[in-house]
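$ fold --in a.seq
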Amino acid sequence: MSASQPPQPSSSSEPPVNPAEPVNPADPVNSAEPVNPAESVDLADSTPTLLVKIFGKDRPGITAGLFDTLAAYAVDVVDIEQVVTRGRIVLCALVTSPTAGGTTEGDLRATVHSWAGSLKLQAEIISGTGDNRPRGSGRSHVTVLGHPLTAESTAAIAAAITATGGNIDRIFRLAKYPVTAVEFAVSGTGTAELRTALATEAAEIGVDVAVVSAGLSRRAQRLVVMDVDSTLIQDEVIELFAAHAGCEDKVAEVTEQAMRGELDFEQSLHARVALLAGLDASVVDKVRAEVRLTPGARTLIRTLKRLGYQVGVVSGGFTQVTDDLKERLGLDFASANTLEVVDGKLTGRVVGDVVDRAGKARLLRSFAEQAGVPLDQTVAIGDGANDLDMLNTAGLGVAFNAKPVVREAAHTAVNVPFLDTVLYLLGITREEVEAADGVVD
């Protein structure tokens, strides 16, 4: 049974069934004692079953009322799914045929239709045998972000999934703002194949798509590591320092040389830092005060930390800024280059190993080892070519408002200016974020 509409919180008096957590047919419903799965018996393919569908205007008590009605016929519940969209409920129950003495399927049908009619609901009952057909092998979560999400782009994504041999088992909405985010549960095709096909389609239609493997690993505690400049923050820190030194144009010229491939990152770093020689070290406090966090950065980090994730940053910028960010935001890890200071002045040099493209990937591995998190459970977020090794090393690499070459090479891309949209790629809904924010830690 599959839902074709994204769920909303039900106003029913009892807790609605979460479509993302289907009832296991091998598990009893309303049982006081859990059953050992090894002792349970699968429903035989030949067992007569009924699919009972109720739809209409939602109100408290519909779910309880349906199952009170079915209880008179001693049926077993095999599967349940409930969706509420704009005040309209679709409730589906897959149950065994009646077993109560002297009752028939016809009796059950008449009673359910009568009950539904009394509430001005519609009912449909379909006879069949056995449980739902098994889902195909190869299961993935496909998250689609749109600003807005159009019918045309949704059709294109659905068609691309079908073209890979995948089947859409379920769809539900993760968020309605600041972007529309929906998740497709897909089976029948490999995650890597699906990711490749959808990345191409997403680039053509202008939406962001992330594909990750389904399974328990998605809910495990993870490590998230971010770039800093133009990712965690809106600024380029070297440019903030250059503004105080009066050498913005010269720094920008060196940056352009690096972008043209005339200088590698380490050469360009040394050339730009040299222009800061003689700057009073007190400017560090001014630069820290000027740093602007990317919209959604605090929400992203706060939510991840509440979930037990560990969060770190790696930067080609400077520890004079990243150490402050680590303290302010409660980060677990932070690493960057360090500006040398002698007698209260910047010398125009950096000390220690340079954090470059390869260095960022090494630091991701080091952070993961310290955190006790496998690399395939890490998430890396960045925007520039300097982040590519890190993005490709992580289990999920997210290009955030990135250069075209980075978007093409990363696992997925986010092209809206809200860093907390990364939460949706991890299956976290906007409602869950807001509910957590409403609770005092």
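$ fold --in b.seq
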Amino acid sequence: MSDFATLLWRERYLMVAVFSIIFVLGAAAAFTMKTTYPAYSSVLVRLGQEYVYEPRSGDAGRGAVPDSDQVIQSETEILGSGQLKQRVIDKLGLARIYPTLAAKYAGADATEKKLILGQAIRNLDSSTKIETAPDTPIIRISFTHENPETAALVLNTLLEEYLIYRRAVLTDPTSPALGRQREAFEARLQQADAAYEDFLNNNRIGDFVAEKTSLGQLQQQIEQQKYQTDTQLQDRMGRLAMLESQMGQVSQEVGLYRDISSAANDKLMTLKLQREDLLSRYKNDARPVQELDAQIAQLEAGISSGRTQGEGARRIGVNPVYQTIQTDKIQLTAEVAALKQSQVTLANQVAQLTERRMRLAELEPKFQALSLDRDVLQASVRDFTVKEQQSRAASEIASTTNDNIRIVSRATPPTKGKSLKKPVIVLAFLFAAFTALCAGLLRMFLRPGLPTAQSASRTLDLPVLATAPMKVR
């Protein structure tokens, strides 16, 4: 190891030369670096309405929101976009930010201007740093420039343009699309309404549901009337049959007497009065009247045979009982005929109502399809109208406010700058020393011969008795 020190010392001039050249160049480069001034600002980001999911149609997934890290990442991408840098340059002017590039830009052609502008955007992007932390709603932004006032101005302008630019990025631009979709649904709804009206007019229906309900109620009432008419008809026909049987048992004529004795006359008149009273009380039962008729007939027979005092002329007349029964029969016959006519009329009405209801039952599937189509289209028009109004209102609100973004601290001109002179000088010193050492080692290993007496003794395995300096020729 002692040989290395000796050998490197022999290459000291080479190493000093290499070290000096590299260190001087590095120091010169360090002294050419300018001092820059970083301006700082921070932004508070919270969840806003623009991140709440609103489906275009229906309610599936309505109200879903991303987590806070996704919101921060989204806002960070907007802050770091090249379009935002372009807006800052357009607002402040290239001469205000980078005067050197502005001088080149003034004398360049169209192609060179695009390249210079791109270089300015890259410089602006490289000078801007955006920092975030997990689970923290704060975004920290810094911008570095040679002029402290320009650094603060550019950063504040960047934040102002960011608040405007994010509205254009995050604002839902679907209001025109929703309007067009609503108009399309309205046109389809008009067609559905026309088909619905044609269906009702062609089938002579005012209100399908109301008519169906009224037909059911009306048929129920008429059927009830028909049942009552049938009951009344059966009752009248039964009474008519009973009267016909009574007419066969009652004689149509009875004998009448005049100039009879006073006692027989009184008794006969009494019996006749009783008979009239029984007729009025028992219209439907002929047995009491028949018993009384038998007594009257017996008394008249006694008077005619002379068993009673006084004689008189005998006269034949119409039997009042038979006449009453005949009158009741005629009345019941008329009622039976009227009830039969009512029965036929009610049966026809029931048949007509049944036919109409069956017709409505055949038309009901088509009516249900047309009604369902109209209801769905009406609901769609209503939903899209609501969404359009909500989207327009949200866009108008978002175009004027940023309620979920707050600038915590605006940039102020920095008073302390940053420079890379010291780090560059240190790095130049270290690199120069390392390079000089490598050059010395390389020269040491490439030098021919045995450089020292010790190396010669070790190599030749012979003792070295004396050394002489190299004679220069």
